Amino acid sequence: MSEIQITPVRQPKWSSVHSHIRGLGLDKNGKALRVADGMIGQTEAREAAGLVVEMVKQGRLGGKGVLIVGPSGTGKTAIAVAMARELGEDTPFVAINGSEVLAAENKTEFLMQAMRRAVGVRMRDEREVVTGVVTDLKYLKRTSPFYPYPVLGGAKVTLETRDDSGTFTVGPEVAQQFQELGIRKGDVIMIDVNTGEVRRLGRVKEKAAVSYDIDVTENVEIPSGRVRSRREIVRTLTLHDIDASIAAQRAAFTIFGFLREESAISDEVRSRTDELVKKLRDEGKAELVPGIMFIDDAHMLDIEAFSFLTKAMEGEFAPIIVLATNRGMTTVRGTDEVSPHGMPRDLLDRLLIITTKPYSEDEIREIIRVRAEEEEVELSDDALSALTKIGAERSLRYAVQLLQPAKLAAERRGSSRVEASDVEQVSKLFADLKTSIEYVEKYKDLLLH
């Protein structure tokens, strides 16, 4: 038998266009640093975005929206991504494209669901829970008239804290969660007594039956206090999550016994959600967390979508709507009206407008350098200068897109470092927008119409 060689599969390193962005790059006074958090240049736009973020955090931007306007490749989407990074994981951020709305079968329903996903509800509830490190866990089996073999009948778990310990018998549903989560000795868990929901909080290395030098579970300290106690549980859901939960409870079964899902959530369900949230908010058990709904290429929206946004923006549970476009004077879709950025003037009057400007040559150089580090491309000084020139004369996006082809060209000649000759070689192989237009003009008689 011939020998079979098995070689490990090389996994690609994915890096999105804005994966290097960590925030807006502002100091404690809200002033933009020249280079910080992956952001370069656009100081006025970043400082304006910083004020928007602060207003969102303080809940002072109700009934308003933001429009980011600028030429292509000036960092409009980057600023929106940076705003999301600044707001943190707890604040909802929904990004869609204007063409997605235009292609939707029901544009208003699509926008409504996106808006509801962009509004969070931070719920506080005092629950009775048992918490501690697992020191013993035994699964219980029982017989079933439907199966020839014993099935899971529950479990007996012993939990300890620094001050207390207790043994609890749990039902099969909770025991099944233990198995799904892979709960074992040394894990710190919390069980909601009322719902039976199990959460793993981490692992105490000293208590674990088997310990590892490297593990995906976070190491935590042994909890203190009583095992069984009442605690405040904080969860953040979106309005759409609550809508979907109520709709699922109301879903009807067909004659065949299958669950029939509704294609759209009804206004009645959303009204029930709003009433529930208002009640919880008045009782001090919940608070609204307005997030951001970002619509790129907003000029692709039509008058129906703009009318919906204008009205929805003034709603009590509206998120902060951030639009972005690179259009100047153009026709509003669905009308004969020519308006700035292809948007109705009454909507523009409701927006805070942030403008971006073309990058300087020094800023282009720094952006290319940061992207090269993110994509693990080693550039010589001459290669960086060549790419900077391409970015200034052709486009920044084109220059950034040449990084990986240039790296591959360097590897083919046996080098890990990209030189100016590699950049020149790939720039001749791949055309930029200007060259493509010239090509179309030159061969317009030979190309199909």
Automatic annotation (TrEMBL):
Q: Which superkingdom is the protein from?
A: Archaea
* Signal peptide extent: none
Q: Which UniProt keywords apply?
A: ATP-binding, Helicase, Hydrolase, Nucleotide-binding
Gene3D superfamilies, from UniProt? 1.10.8.60, P-loop containing nucleotide triphosphate hydrolases (3.40.50.300), RuvB-like helicase, domain II (2.40.50.360)
Entry's Gene Ontology molecular function annotations: ATP binding; DNA helicase activity; hydrolase activity
InterPro entries from the entry?
A: AAA+_ATPase, NA-bd_OB-fold, P-loop_NTPase, RuvB-like, RuvB-like_C, RuvBL1/2_DNA/RNA_bd_dom, TIP49_P-loop
EC annotation from Swiss-Prot or TrEMBL = 3.6.4.12
* Residues of the AAA+ ATPase domain: 62-358
Q: Name one Pfam family in it.
A: TIP49_C
At the top of the EC hierarchy, this enzyme's class is hydrolase
Family classification: Belongs to the RuvB family.
Q: Which PANTHER family match?
A: RUVB-RELATED REPTIN AND PONTIN
Under which name does UniProt file this protein? DNA helicase
Source species of the chain: Acidilobus saccharovorans (strain DSM 16705 / JCM 18335 / VKM B-2471 / 345-15)
